[in-house]
């Protein structure tokens, strides 16, 4: 039997403690230099970053078993889940389609292991074909009596997915709750997740052009969440394993279990006060220390993702020597020392076009990684910058042929 692709629909999370990061309150130390050169701004930001937020060297496997451990908060209660069927708001064939448990049961052959494509903290994900021929991913929540976060995360994902529709977001088909079963039905994305491709687990090396397309797709998806939904949505768990790839290597952002509504601008609120959730290595240090969540927390995570795309490394690399374990810190120091080229994923060719993309995307990443949210660009600005970088890259690539 051929190997099954692994997906990240499940949104798994494991506990870690906020004390694994610096807990010093961040304060402004200077203003950006008066210059229009992106590299100058990026170097200023990298200097502040190194001074203000330097993750500890003493990471061990006890702190993080791997870079995919999620930070979970404790919640005192969760809303009740009513037993009813959810409609598929965005289905192409029948916007009023409803699902029954019998249909899901039959489609997965009683949740047979042969249909399983993913496993996470939320539960198990199955690939199945519905009666109308639609291939979907079915997320089956764990039947845990002790996880008081599960019900709220399930409802959060439903409420978020039901109101969004974008080419670069995983499509929502519907949900149902049947006795103690909680089922979410979403689009099946055939080509695995970004992290597996960066690790070459899918057999193909992602070239720079593809990586730029993926970065741009993700930026557009998050821009949509921040600007074109009402109310705006903060994803809160942007990471490479939550970026699914189509067969044409276009990106779709998945897993909205941690999503939160952004503050209502009309009320004058600037942030949402909430306990920390997210994934170690991607967490906004300001959110981590103040518990104040904003759209700029997604921007920070996106900056980590950009570094991941450039280097091929995970945000936390426990098997490397100590000075290279925190990938963004290692990359920033290389940039500051004028040795940017050495961070390029060794699987990528060192060509003029790749070198240009490396410099420009890293400059953007460092702006996203500014320790204070006020210094970070908006996701719309990130999208515009990436669009320009991709255009320049393609032009240089064509002239080099």
UniProtKB/TrEMBL annotation:
The Polar residues compositionally biased stretches are: 14-33, 76-89
Annotated region (Disordered), positions in chain: 1-38, 61-97
Annotated keywords: ATP-binding, Kinase, Nucleotide-binding, Serine/threonine-protein kinase, Transferase
List the CDD domains: STKc_IRAK
Ranges of Basic and acidic residues compositional bias? 61-71
Q: Which residues bind ATP?
A: 143
Top enzyme class: transferase
A single GO molecular-function term is: protein serine/threonine kinase activity
* EC number(s) stated in the UniProt entry for this protein: 2.7.11.1
Protein kinase domain boundaries: 111-369
Reactions it catalyzes: L-seryl-[protein] + ATP = O-phospho-L-seryl-[protein] + ADP + H(+); L-threonyl-[protein] + ATP = O-phospho-L-threonyl-[protein] + ADP + H(+)
Name the domain of life.
Answer: Eukaryota
Q: Which GO terms describe its biological process?
A: pollen development
Entry's family note: Belongs to the protein kinase superfamily.
Q: How does it assemble?
A: Interacts with calmodulin (CaM) in a Ca(2+)-dependent manner.
Q: What is this protein identified as?
A: non-specific serine/threonine protein kinase
Q: Which organism is it from?
A: Eutrema salsugineum (Saltwater cress)
């Amino acid at each position: 039997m051929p190997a099954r692709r692994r997906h990240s629909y499940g949104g798994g999370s494991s506990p870690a403690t906020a004390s694994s990061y610096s807990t010093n309150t961040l304060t402004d130390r200077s203003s950006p230099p008066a210059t229009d050169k992106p590299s100058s701004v990026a170097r200023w930001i990298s200097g502040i970053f190194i001074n203000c937020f330097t993750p500890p060297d003493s990471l061990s496997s006890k702190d993080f078993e791997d870079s995919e451990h999620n930070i979970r908060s404790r919640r005192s209660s969760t809303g009740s889940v009513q037993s009813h069927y959810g409609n598929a708001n965005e289905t192409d064939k029948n916007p009023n389609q409803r699902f029954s448990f019998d249909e899901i049961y039959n489609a997965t052959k009683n949740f047979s292991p042969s249909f399983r494509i993913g496993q996470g903290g939320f539960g198990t994900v199955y690939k199945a074909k519905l009666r109308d021929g639609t291939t979907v991913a079915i997320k089956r929540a764990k039947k845990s009596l002790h996880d008081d976060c599960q019900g709220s995360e399930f409802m959060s994902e439903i409420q978020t997915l039901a109101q969004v529709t974008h080419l670069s977001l995983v499509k929502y088909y519907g949900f149902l709750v049947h006795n103690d079963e909680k089922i979410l039905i979403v689009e099946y994305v055939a080509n695995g997740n970004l992290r597996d491709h960066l690790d070459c687990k899918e057999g193909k090396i992602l070239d720079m052009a593809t990586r730029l397309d993926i970065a741009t797709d993700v930026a557009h998806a998050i821009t949509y969440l921040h600007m074109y939904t009402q109310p705006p949505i903060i994803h809160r768990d942007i990471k490479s394993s939550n970026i699914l790839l189509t067969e044409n290597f276009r990106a779709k952002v998945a897993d909205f279990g941690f999503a939160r509504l952004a503050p209502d601008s009309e009320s004058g609120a600037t942030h949402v006060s909430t306990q920390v959730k997210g994934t170690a290595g991607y967490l906004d240090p300001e959110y981590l220390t103040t518990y104040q969540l904003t759209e700029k927390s997604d921007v920070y995570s996106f900056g980590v993702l950009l570094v991941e795309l450039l280097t091929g490394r995970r945000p936390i690399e426990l098997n490397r020597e100590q000075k290279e374990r925190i990938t963004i810190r290692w990359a920033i120091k290389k940039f500051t020392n004028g040795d940017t080229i050495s961070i390029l994923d060794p699987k990528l060719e060192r060509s003029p076009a790749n070198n240009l993309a490396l410099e420009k995307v890293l400059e953007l990443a460092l702006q996203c990684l500014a320790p204070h949210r006020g210094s970070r660009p908006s996701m719309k600005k990130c999208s515009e910058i990436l669009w320009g970088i991709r255009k320049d890259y393609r032009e240089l690539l064509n002239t080099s042929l």
